[in-house]
Design brief:
By secondary structure, the chain is α/β, with parallel strands linked by helices. 26% of the residues lie in helices and 24% in strands.
């Protein structure tokens, strides 16, 4: 835009559009920062939050997102949501939100704020179909866990807090997979439920109406900034690294439903985490674990990477058995969405367990 001397940068990754507006003199800085921001942070190096402009260029985007962060909703999104509630129209397919981030806010920094437009999938008004196919779990597990310590090792064994320092405001599964999970939640989580989403991020994939129809929605996750952007968490969130401490910071029998989305493959003590999930569930409550074939290979446990989708479900079922406190048999489903032209969709699988 020559009149305003502004330069527009748009980055698509992998299914989220990020748009920045900056003066031409800042375009190189912002391009470098956002490329570092959206690419998976796999070095395991801890980055300081207060940096000078020169350090900002060399250190990537850490300082861009570790200072004060605010959230503002795009006016068009507000209008769409208000019309939906007032007139009962169909939910929009996408909702755009403007996130305002402040970086380099330390004593040696040169503070700047930038706006980012993030597109959220609602799971509604899509062209996809959502078949649900039961999967029979057949593996018989021995009385004692057969796992070895090396089964839970990872190629990147460094502290997870460094890996998740930079918020990833992206989707790790495609839109059909997100939509299939949203529709499954709508059909299988009763109104008025108290929900805990563990290993959560900036989206929880719940239907748009859930904040109004559920008694509360809480979450734990690695990155407080991501969780702060999650507008479905009516009960708040607690930052928690379950690989450091596998206990959940909630009272016994606090929730009707616990959810975990494409994350159990990262847990190094999954049996202990599921014991905790059982503890915080009310009698008759259930945990819904969803899984695809996407992951950060450096952070997934060793034996997970050696298995196929069906074996992953059998493994999770084994975790439930050794955690104890859940009814048998557990239920598993293939809920992979289908497209009108039968083109590829990320697979999506569910395994449910009910507290005895």
């Amino acid at each position: 835009n020559h009149r305003s001397n502004k330069f527009q940068i748009t980055i698509i990754y992998p299914t989220v559009s990020l748009m920045l507006y900056a003066s031409k003199s800042r375009r190189v800085l912002l391009s470098a920062a956002w490329l570092a921001y959206v690419l998976p942070h796999s070095t395991g190096l801890a980055l300081k939050s207060n940096t000078s402009r020169a350090q900002f260029l060399s250190a990537g985007a850490a300082s861009f997102v570790t200072a004060t962060t605010g959230l503002a909703t795009n006016p068009e999104s507000c209008n769409a949501m208000e019309k939906m509630k007032t007139y009962g129209t169909k939910n929009p397919r996408y909702i755009q939100k403007e996130l305002e981030m402040k970086y380099a806010d330390g004593p040696d920094g040169n503070p700047r704020s930038r706006g980012v437009l993030v597109r959220r999938f609602t799971g509604d008004s899509t062209p996809y179909s959502f078949p649900i196919s039961p999967i029979r779990l057949v593996k018989e597990w021995p009385e004692n866990p057969p796992f070895r310590p090396e089964d839970f090792q990872r190629s990147d064994s460094l502290d997870d807090s460094s890996f998740y320092t930079i918020p990833r405001l992206v989707y790790h599964i495609d839109e059909p997979a997100v939509a299939s999970l949203t529709q499954y939640y709508r059909k299988n989580i009763p109104k008025g439920s108290a929900i805990l989403d563990i290993c959560a991020s900036w989206v929880s994939h719940f239907p748009l109406e859930f904040p109004d129809t559920m008694s509360k929605i809480c979450a734990t996750g690695m990155n407080a900034l991501e969780l702060g952007f999650n507008d479905q968490l009516t009960g708040g969130f607690k930052q928690k690294d379950l690989n450091v401490d596998p206990t959940l910071p909630y009272d016994d029998a606090s929730f009707d439903v616990v959810t975990c989305v494409v994350s159990i493959d990262y847990l190094i003590e999954p049996i202990k985490v599921l014991k905790e999930a059982c503890r915080v569930l009310k009698p008759g409550g259930k945990i819904i674990i969803s899984q695809s074939n996407r992951c950060f290979p450096s952070k997934a446990i060793s034996m997970w990477l050696q298995m196929n989708d069906r074996q992953h479900l059998e493994l999770i079922n084994g975790y439930f058995q050794y955690a104890g406190g859940f009814e048998e048999p557990r239920k598993a489903f293939d809920i992979t969405a289908t497209q009108p032209d039968n083109s590829y969709c990320d697979p999506m699988f569910i395994i449910e367990a009910v507290k005895a």
